Amino acid sequence: MPTKFYRLRLLIAGLLIAVPVCGSSSAAQTSRSPQSSGSSTTVVIDAGHGGHDSGGIPGQKVPEKEMTLDVAQRLKSILTANGYRVVMTRDSDVFVPLPTRVAIANSYPNAIFVCIHFNSAKRAGADGIETYFYSRDSLPLASAIHYFVAGGAPSPNRGVRRRGYYVLRKTSVPAVLVECGFLTNPTEATYALSASYREKLAEEIAAGVRGRFSVTSGLSPTRVATGESIPLQSYTDQTNVRDSERSRSKRSHKKSSSSKSSKKKKSSKSIESKSSATPKEGEG
Fold first, then answer.
1. Domain 36-237 belongs to what architecture?
2. At CA 239, angle to CA 47 and CA 150, rounded to 5?
3. CA–CA separation, 74 and 56 (whole Å)
4. How far apart (Å, rounded) are the C-alpha atoms in residues 222 and 73?
5. pLDDT tens by residue, 20-75
6. Are 127 and 58 in contact (CB under 8 A)?
């Protein structure tokens, strides 16, 4: 009988010891889980263009829609591994209207919107990285992403710019549009065709997403960070510049008949200039 009682005491003591051990194990697992900035944030990734909209300019050899989708998918993999919830506006070669892209972003209140594009120009020498935002609360995100992308790319830093692109103007969450280089520039097009370079772009964008809370409050004309802080980037305000999607969309329309009077042409341009709320598919 004493032996049985002694064994019972040992069993109870073992159970009492096991309870805090299990609790410690759970805490250890929690400490290894993604930080709250990742697990509670939805990142809506928008790969520019798609489907019948190839992006870029006529005669461009490297299709922008393919480059943006590849970088977006790589970014999705990285952020998912970091514990973020990721939503793609498109995950294949399909055309998604701009209002639909905005609606997807706005359907997640605790989200950030990252739109990925590549640039193009008639002048082959145009080059560099630039990042766009519109709302003031998007500037920290734009600063962080531009800080890393411009710092990690071999291309010139064209800076941060405030501009009223439809997907930036109509989103109710922090939103940025990253131009990852000029596909019409032979050097930067070669970079973009490299899978390792597209992976690098995705890694730098992801670093910006993770670092957006480390952006300091003071504007800085440089990229130099102090310790763990990232400087709030100075920017060029281009909100009065006519959005590029409007000028691009005009190229897809049939030219006016030469029989039309100059008065009608002038009237048509006037009407178009007032339609700033109408999205065009060739944005960015």
1. 3-Layer(aba) Sandwich (3.40)
2. 50
3. 21
4. 30
5. 333 332 222 222 233 444 557 999 999 999 999 999 999 999 999 999 999 999 99
6. no
What are residue 237's phi and psi, to 5 degrees? -85, 115
Among 66, 72, 62, smallest CA distance to 189 is for 62
* Distance from chain centroid for Cα 244: 18
What number of residues does the chain have?
Answer: 284
Alpha-carbon gap, residue 131 to 269, rounded angstroms: 29
What one-letter code names the amino acid at 169?
R
What are 61-112's pLDDT values in tens digits? 999 999 999 999 999 999 999 999 999 999 999 999 999 999 999 999 899 9
Task: Read off the amino acid at residue 103.
Answer: A
pTM, 2 dp: 0.74
Question: Alpha-carbon distance 65 to 124, whole Å?
Answer: 19
Let me know if 229 is exposed, middle or buried by CB neighbors in 10 A (0-12, 13-18, 19+): middle
Tokens matching residue 53 = 């909209």
Sign of CA dihedral 137, 223, 116, 209: negative
Q: What's the distance, CA 71 to chain centroid?
A: 10
CA distance to 16, 197, 217, 268, per residue, from 187 (Å): 67, 12, 36, 39
Instruction: Provide the angle, in degrees to the nearest 10, between the axes of the packed helices 64-81 and 195-210.
Output: 50
Domain ranges of the chain: 36-237
Q: Is 49 exposed, middle or buried (0-12, 13-18, 19+ CB in 10 A)?
A: buried
Long-range contacts of 273-277 (CB under 8 A, 24+ apart): 273/242, 276/164, 276/243
